[in-house]
């Protein structure tokens, strides 16, 4: 599967006994979905800040990649149900999501949790509160990985409807924008009208706009100020010098801990080369948080 790099991200404080740690398995692979990107940090921080709103909920993460936000949601309550999805043909990414789920299950409320995928029996899916599924954006029917099959399974096997949709950096490639918003619109219109889509994206061009697609798909959007988070996002900002020092060291300060074993140090060096943007610099400042819902 390629060289892995285990990272752990902590939210909250040990001092008040209110802390969650999510462990992510990154892979040395050209696929963008195998890394934790800055947009995922921001979305996860917002979920933690608003964690009471995410307890006892059913959550669907689109383009989950390494699934940091979705896994954090899963950890918030033993009654949460979570579906972690990525493109159906991203088999390496989907397998890596399952591996990350298995890393975290021992630290969830119910350590007997299991992770299920499409090929499991209905009984196995019903018992599991964490699903990993392939999902083709913009495909609503006539395929095992289509949206209608997934929504039917959620309603039939869990007896629930989606409360929250999540996506970090899903608005990366303009050719995907309509498929993403069409998928969101379908879920809200035909499955769960009260649900909301929370998404973070990093602005890469001021000329890009999704407003005309929001109008087309009967959606509306509001921007959430990151000042609401009351969290020091600078803890995710690593300059080039700091990153080079961390490549050769296991010592990390901050509230967010990145734990590495000696076996991962060489992987970290290669990781830095293949993914130079992980020296975040000011990238956090170019990230926006949006809430998308059905137009009223």
From TrEMBL:
<dbReference type="GO" id="GO:0005737">
    <property type="term" value="C:cytoplasm"/>
</dbReference>
<dbReference type="GO" id="GO:0005634">
    <property type="term" value="C:nucleus"/>
</dbReference>
<dbReference type="GO" id="GO:0032259">
    <property type="term" value="P:methylation"/>
</dbReference>
<dbReference type="InterPro" id="IPR019410">
    <property type="entry name" value="Methyltransf_16"/>
</dbReference>
<protein>
    <submittedName>
        <fullName>10345_t:CDS:1</fullName>
    </submittedName>
</protein>
<keyword id="KW-0949">S-adenosyl-L-methionine</keyword>
<dbReference type="Pfam" id="PF10294">
    <property type="entry name" value="Methyltransf_16"/>
</dbReference>
<dbReference type="InterPro" id="IPR029063">
    <property type="entry name" value="SAM-dependent_MTases_sf"/>
</dbReference>
<keyword id="KW-0808">Transferase</keyword>
<comment type="similarity">
    <text>Belongs to the methyltransferase superfamily. METTL23 family.</text>
</comment>
<dbReference type="GO" id="GO:0008168">
    <property type="term" value="F:methyltransferase activity"/>
</dbReference>
<keyword id="KW-0489">Methyltransferase</keyword>
